[in-house]
Write a structure and sequence with these properties.
- The complex is a heterotetramer of chains A (about 425), B (about 170), C (about 375) and D (about 140).
- Chain A has two domains: about 300 residues, Cytochrome-c3 Hydrogenase, chain B; about 30 residues, no CATH class.
- Chain A has about 425 residues and is an alpha+beta fold.
- Chain A has 15 helices and ten strands.
- The N terminus of chain A is likely disordered.
- With about 170 residues, chain B is of the alpha/beta class.
- Chain B has a single domain, classed as 2-Layer Sandwich (Beta Polymerase, domain 2), CATH 3.30.460.
- Chain B has a five-stranded mixed sheet with strand order 1-2-5-4-3. Chain B has a two-stranded parallel sheet with strand order 6-7.
- Chain B starts with a helix and ends with a helix.
- Chain C is mostly helical.
- Chain C has one domain.
- Helices cover about 70% and strands about 0% of the residues of chain C.
- The longest helix of chain C is centred in the C-terminal third of the chain and has 41 residues.
- Chain C is globular and about 60 Å long.
- The radius of gyration of chain D is 22 Å and the shape is elongated.
- The model of chain D has no long low-confidence stretch (mean pLDDT about 80).
- The chains are: A alpha+beta (about 425), B alpha/beta (about 170), C mainly alpha (about 375), D alpha+beta (about 140).
- Chains in contact: A-B, A-C, A-D, C-D.
- The interface between A and B is large, with 57 and 52 residues.
Chain lengths: ~425, ~170, ~375, ~140
């Protein structure tokens, strides 16, 4: 061991020159543990990570820009595609923003629609958290838990498919309400399924609390102290697992969460490590099942849709919602037309990715993936814009291609290859 | 308006403490207040809010290409209510960058490290330079993306928008 | 014994039979076939534990799936990185395939002795298992990859630290049976009318052996050197096509070898009924037909016993999360090795005495027909 | 009290269970709700007026209007299922009950053209267009 003092990179920049005795190991963009592309450059000494530099943007699809060209109802389906797992919360967030802007003119959304939205939101939370549990189990090599938890997630997915008509992008929202109503048979079936789900999640809680190897792999790693969590703007379960009491559903209630406040608990846990995040997520799932049952039992009668005016008055609206991963922001500037002037989306992963770089520092390589997975990352951002440098040597230039240009190019390419259309 | 008491109190406190520095301050709606300041004052406002109401949560940083051709940066800041109420109040702190060709603004990272990635994103996509930011390298766009092209500005047109413009001109 | 008769007649027929034996039955052909079926059993049972079906469409209930996977890997493009030591990579792949095949010739499968059997062959087997560890280390080293290096280091430390409990187990059985020959170990179990497993410290050694075997074979939850979600396959990250196919087949053969070893050391090898009815062995030898019935009988019992071991190993695979390398090594050096060393001492001094006591009870259960 | 291998009894129960959770999908029918799925479109051309409401409503521009003799305005929609996101906005936009989403969801084709439905002009007759589009047979 050399006597040189190891210079730890400053947290302000998150990057530094290569340190002595280190080896750089890339984590991503393609990695079996990452379900979506991102890149972390890890500097390791032996098995210990001394520095991690994130780089995101591999799935930048330009949704914010594209949203400016579409009408509000089209945008609802567009923002649903920001994320495959928490899709409903995006459309609720945008619908809330638009309805708030319309509220200036006295527009109101029916109560029953709000309840149905909230039910779907919580169902989404249940399936997302169980999905996360499976992924986390897979990261630490516990495939049995992974398979079993995903088997039980299917129940929730079946419910969602039945009430919305699709398994992933539900398209149940509309500006001014929801498209579909819940029938009594559906409500009964959901209550039955929720009982089964609750029983199974309690079982997983048992397993996670009692299983020795899970504790060995999750306790004491990926530590994010409460002070750091506040400083680095961590949100959602990541922050709550660091004993920071922040939950938009409670702090800034939207949809039907106002009525839920009496039975609402903000789940926090104080060990600040990955284990804490596992516990917080599992308990949150149990809570979500509780809220779904309450909402189903207290579902108000009435219409589910009120026809909104086509044009949205000029307003600057900030809509905060709580997806399963953290805090989602839709900041809408409307300009008295049927299209938004500017729609700013901030996803929870962008807020949490800085905390990951902090968590990884000082951990073993074996723990990087579970630390990274512990924030439940979801790298969905923007445009599929491809830069192609053309091969003309005399006039080299960088071209920016849009998606339709690319599609046309690919069709031509296949046609040249002799493929059918 | 007894319902918006907490919000009004925050606005009044800001007004009385900063006086003329606050260009605009008003209660937008329930749990939302709108504040507008000139360039370097946002640091003071945020520090003040941080200390006075024990708030710590920077929600997001938005950047807007305004209809009048200038830019605005909006800091969304979560303020815990003064009387220990249970809901949080969000302050939309807007700062203008009047120069379109050379948009500059003082970075908030001195006060809030956590805002670093939000500001980098705004730099990447809108081209606003945050002075005092530790690392303004590319975050989202690829490294070989042409310099000086910022996709979220209004003069960057998508194909659909170009087609629409052509239709209109005809 | 059957084998000794065979050795006495060194003739052309003997040579032809031996060569056919090495090539087909019970040598390379049989071992590879059975190793692939073993993998199928392993995968099928692992899937069943997870409420899945497992391989299904290739052959009867997917029994040909491992073979199909192997053939598919053989036909894949073989990519070798620029910076890697290409001949090193090729040779380690072949060595990794050959060593378990050689080791399997020592395991008694169709007879109470193996194809090759001499005094002290257990020492050679101990050496061969270590060579596999070194081959894996070199395989990672030659591929010159950043992700392979941590995997290689993990493989080296894990394989070497779990080698010791395995060796201790092998030698404690040798101590118990007063022999360094696998055939004699099986013979001892027949003579004493019981498998080695049924004496007190041996049960614990059986557990230690299975645990260390799981670690040696780098199977979940001890697949730390090749952890896919952590270091992208570890030491085998740069291997593709034929070489990966060889490594996969080698892993299957190692699994079969480990199951065979556990069978031989603890469960009485390929013997069955004669463990309790000693006269059955003579009846078997005197049955009409040239060695056909004994061979079938012994092979069947070997298959049953090794499958049992494989099912136990597959269950072990499904139960736990993968623990970290340093926790795992700590477990080996702080718990497993001291315990086995202590038990070795117990075996040396106390077993002859306890053995009598326990065995007097067993005798009552199974009356000796003679 | 923590211990390793907590899951063992549940796993063993699973192993000796007769019915596994896996559905062998193309050979067995998958679980499907009775109604309400959003799948391929069905177009009743004799009700269609060619008003372009569906084209305007479509977010991914998957509906294209082509000339036709069957409708009032001389246009009829051609739907590219390869680009469709099955949001159902066109169904809602249609005021003449001519366009619906069926629950036919098993769509696949070996070439890009196979995903475009109602590409050819249907023959002039009064009965509605046939069932859901047939799978491409190539």
């Amino acid at each position: 061991m050399s006597k040189k003092k190891i210079k730890v990179a400053s947290p302000q920049t998150g990057c530094s020159a290569c340190m002595p005795n280190t080896m750089q190991i890339p984590l991503g963009p393609q990695h079996p543990a990452l379900k979506e592309p991102t890149h972390f450059l890890l500097e390791v000494q032996g098995e210990v990570v001394v520095n991690a530099t994130p780089r995101i943007g591999y799935v930048h699809r330009g949704i914010e820009k594209l949203a400016e060209t579409k009408t509000y109802s089209q945008n609802l389906t567009l923002v649903e595609r920001v994320c495959g797992i928490c899709s409903h919360v995006h459309s609720v967030s945008l619908a809330n923003a638009v309805e708030t802007a319309l509220g200036i003119e006295g527009f109101e959304v029916p109560k029953r629609a709000q309840y149905i939205r909230t039910i779907v939101l919580e169902l989404e939370r249940v399936h997302s958290h169980i999905l996360w549990l499976g992924i986390a189990a897979h990261e630490i090599g516990f495939d049995t838990l992974f398979m079993l938890s995903w088997r039980d997630r299917e129940l929730t997915m079946d419910i969602l498919e039945e009430i919305s008509g699709n398994r992933v992008n539900y398209a149940i929202n509309e500006i001014g309400g929801t498209r579909r109503d819940l029938s009594q048979t559906q409500i009964d079936r959901m209550l039955k399924y929720m009982d089964i789900t609750e029983e199974r999640i309690n079982r997983y809680k048992d397993i996670c609390l009692k299983e020795d190897t899970i504790r060995m792999r999750t306790q004491g790693i990926g530590i994010l102290l409460p002070s750091k969590a506040r400083e680095l703007c961590a949100v959602g379960p990541t922050a709550r697992a660091s004993n920071v009491k922040v939950d938009v559903r409670y702090d800034d209630p939207y949809s039907a969460y106002d009525d839920l406040r009496d039975i609402f608990t903000v789940v926090t846990y104080d060990t600040n490590d990955v284990f804490s995040r596992v516990v917080v997520r599992i308990i949150e799932t149990i809570e979500a099942v509780k809220y779904i049952k309450w909402l189903l039992k207290n579902l108000p009668e009435g219409p589910v849709f009120a026809k909104p005016p086509r044009k949205v008055p000029e307003a600057h609206v900030l809509s905060r919602t709580e997806p399963p991963r953290g805090e989602l922001i839709h900041y809408l500037w409307s300009n008295n037309t049927d299209k938004p002037y500017r729609l700013k989306i901030t996803t929870p992963t962008l807020a949490n990715i800085f905390s990951v770089a902090e968590m990884l520092r000082g951990d073993y390589i074996a723990d990087t993936t579970i630390s990274l997975a512990s924030i439940d990352p979801c790298f969905s951002c923007e445009d599929r814009m491809i830069t192609i440098v053309n091969n003309d040597r005399r006039k080299p230039k960088i071209e920016t291609w849009s998606e339709s240009q690319l599609r046309r190019y690919s069709k031509e390419w296949y046609a040249n290859k002799g493929w059918k259309k | 308006m007894s319902k918006l008491k907490d919000e009004q109190e925050i606005v009044n406190a800001l007004k009385s403490h900063f006086g003329d520095k606050i260009l605009e301050a008003e209660v937008e709606r329930v749990r939302r207040i709108h504040v507008k300041v000139a360039d370097p004052d946002q640091l003071d406002v945020i520090t003040f809010a941080k200390e006075k109401w024990n708030s710590w949560h920077m929600i997001a940083v938005s950047s807007v290409d305004k209809p009048d051709g200038t830019f605005a940066v909006v800091y969304h800041y979560d303020i815990r209510p003064p009387h220990g109420g249970q809901t949080a109040i969000t302050m939309n702190l807007m700062v203008d960058c009047p120069d379109r060709n050379n948009p500059k603004i003082t970075s908030i990272t001195k006060v809030f490290i956590g805002a670093q990635y939000f500001e980098r994103e705004a730099h990447d996509l809108m081209g606003i330079v945050f002075e005092g930011h530790p690392d303004l390298s590319r975050l989202i766009l690829p490294e070989d993306f042409p310099e000086g092209v910022y996709p979220l500005r209004k003069d960057f047109l998508l194909e659909i928008q170009k087609a629409e413009l052509e239709k209109k001109n005809k | 014994m059957v084998c000794k008769q065979r050795v006495e007649k060194v003739s052309a027929v003997w040579w032809i039979l031996t060569i056919l034996g090495i090539l087909f039955f019970p040598g390379i052909g049989f071992c590879i076939t059975f190793a692939l079926i073993d993998e199928w059993i392993d995968r099928k049972f692992y899937a069943a534990l997870q409420d899945r079906i497992g391989p299904l469409h290739t052959g009867f209930k997917g029994i040909l799936q491992p073979l199909a996977d192997f053939l598919k890997l053989l036909s894949n493009e073989d990519i070798e990185p620029e910076a890697a030591d290409k001949w090193g990579m090729r040779i380690t792949a072949i060595v990794a395939l050959v060593i378990p095949l050689v080791a399997l010739l020592f395991i008694p499968i169709i007879d109470t002795t193996g194809m090759i059997s001499f005094e002290g062959d257990i020492l050679l087997l101990a050496f061969l298992t270590t060579v596999i560890a070194i081959a894996i280390y070199l395989a990672g080293w030659f591929s010159a990859n950043r992700l392979a290096m941590p995997g290689t280091m993990r493989a080296a430390s894990q394989l070497l630290s779990y080698e010791i409990p395995i060796l201790l187990t092998m030698f404690v059985v040798a101590l118990r049976t007063q022999s360094l020959n696998l055939a004699d170990i099986v013979g001892w179990q027949i003579d004493h009318n019981r498998p080695t497993l049924f004496s007190l410290p041996m049960v614990i050694f059986f557990g230690i052996f299975l645990l260390s075997t799981q670690a040696e074979l780098e199977r979940s939850p001890f697949d730390i050197p090749t952890a896919e979600t952590e270091i992208v396959g570890g030491w085998e990250v740069e291997y593709s096509g034929k070489k990966l196919g060889f490594f996969r087949l080698s892993a299957d053969l190692q699994l079969l070898y480990a199951a065979g070893m556990a069978t031989t050391l603890f469960l009485g090898g390929p013997t069955g009924i004669e463990l309790w009815i000693p006269s059955f062995a003579e009846t078997l030898a005197n049955t009409p037909g040239y060695h056909v019935w004994p061979i079938l009988y012994y092979t069947t019992f070997f298959l049953i016993k090794s499958t049992l071991i494989i099912v136990i190993l597959a269950t072990m695979r499904a139960l736990m999360a993968r623990i970290r390398i340093e926790q795992f090594l700590e477990f080996s050096w702080k718990w497993l090795i001291p315990i086995s060393l202590g038990l070795v001492i117990v075996t040396i001094f106390w077993v002859p005495w306890t053995d009598q006591v326990i065995w007097s009870h067993w005798e009552g259960l199974f009356p000796n027909p003679t | 009290m923590t211990r390793p291998a907590v899951i063992i009894w549940e796993a063993l129960r699973n192993a000796f269970k007769r019915e596994k959770a896996t559905i062998i999908y193309p050979f067995e029918p998958g679980i499907k709700p009775e109604k309400g799925l959003r799948g391929a479109h069905i177009l009743y051309i004799e009700k269609c007026t060619g008003c372009r409401a569906c084209e305007r409503a479509c977010p991914p521009i998957a509906i294209e209007m082509v000339p036709s003799e069957l409708t009032k305005t001389g246009k009829r929609p051609v739907i590219n299922l390869g680009e469709c996101i099955f949001c159902g906005l066109c169904e809602e936009a249609c005021r003449y009950d001519a366009l619906f989403l069926t629950d036919y969801i098993e769509l696949s084709s070996f070439d890009l053209g196979g995903m475009i439905i109602y590409e050819k002009e249907p023959p002039k007759k009064k009965e509605p267009e046939g069932d859901a589009p047939k799978e491409d047979e190539s």
